[in-house]
Amino acid sequence: MLRQIICASLFSLSSCAIGRQEINSPIDATIVATLKPGTTTAKEVVERLGAPTDIVQLGRRVAYRYDASVTKSAGLVLILFNMFGQDTRTDRVFVFFDEKDVLTHYGATFAVHRTQYALPWQNVHDASDNAERDAKRPGVNGQ
Fold it and tell me: How far apart are CA 117 and CA 103, in angstroms?
């Protein structure tokens, strides 16, 4: 009887935990697709995407960095054994301008929509799962 009470007590002290952290709003890929090298100005980029996270001076040229991230955490808490998994994904856009503040080129990665709650043994990088999530986000991968 005492053994059953101890086991029941141990199981009643276990728990699960989840958490989510967002830094900035996800970047709208459809807006990024409207940026045209040789035509779009720095002023227009700021009007469309808002204030950049960072401005990098490159001699007489400049680059703006935009980013957003989402972190999802999941955990299992037992008395003597605890485990947590964490998945962080980022949207990141760099836009580069010439000396006249005209866009020369840009690079973008969109991944915040792929963030998942998972424990350490789960695979959060499954290609088919990512493709399914990409299909649901406008402007990503030619959508």
Answer: 38
